[in-house]
Amino acid sequence: MLVSIIGGAGRMGSWFAKYFLNRGYDVAIFDVRADRAEHVARSIGARVYRSSVEAAGEADILLIATPIDVTPKVICEVARWMRRNSILIEISSLKSKVMPVLRGVSKMDIRALSIHPLFGSGAQGMAGEKIALIPVNDPASEEELARRVFPEANIITVDLDTHDRVMALTLSLTHFVNIIFASIVGEEDVRLLKHLGGTTFSLQLIVSEAVMSEDPSLYASIQMTNEHTVGYIDKFLSFALELRDIIESRDVEGFIHFYRKVLEAISKDEDFGAAYGRMYRALKAI
Predict the structure, then answer these.
(1) Are 22 and 129 in contact (CB under 8 A)?
(2) 82 SS3 class
(3) Which residue among 36, 91, 110, 152 is least enclosed by CB atoms within 10 Å?
(4) What's residue 273's pLDDT?
């Protein structure tokens, strides 16, 4: 069975190329960065296509791993070249713009899967990793197909609106906070901070530096394509300014009240009680 990957020279595209190769599939990649595609293909043992049309026309499974903002256009360009009953998988981290296109594709006797890998290209394998499945038409049959293609993954089915709203919190806001944290720390003597910083700072620095090592174009798309992003950033800034005013006014009772209100809300998480110990174990593992 042939898997073609458009965007196969990118981090996630090449990750999936290696994944399918390891599972015994024949894999070919296409990328507009032709030299990069040649290099990736040689390094992993895949073939290279010279055009997206060629990649689409021969594939049993066509995986689209292009930037969020161009994914709908790419699908529109290649879908008409795909064979009947072939599988189209797109992996973008936001779904509102691509979903109407996928619903159109599904009417062309093409099985469309919209997934969001909830892990990065540093993952060592698929076992135990989470994949969000956002149904295009038929949740049951699409989940069955996803489990067949990714049998080791933990498939989580979620509707489009919930997915994109949650991503504004778990991706957009998280990235925003870490970029701002890194911008402040970067103005200081980082070596000194690492010498004197405790466990909380050390873990926060690792996360922020990991965020800053990613592709800024991808992160810009995640921030700017999601209609829920600005609302959560505004909420973050509102809480931050409220706490700042409490601190500036030396209002101890106000601080404790703010803290306890947040604690009451966050402690509803069933894993809350183990969080402190897990933080130390995580740092020790690193």
Answers:
(1) no
(2) coil
(3) 152
(4) 81
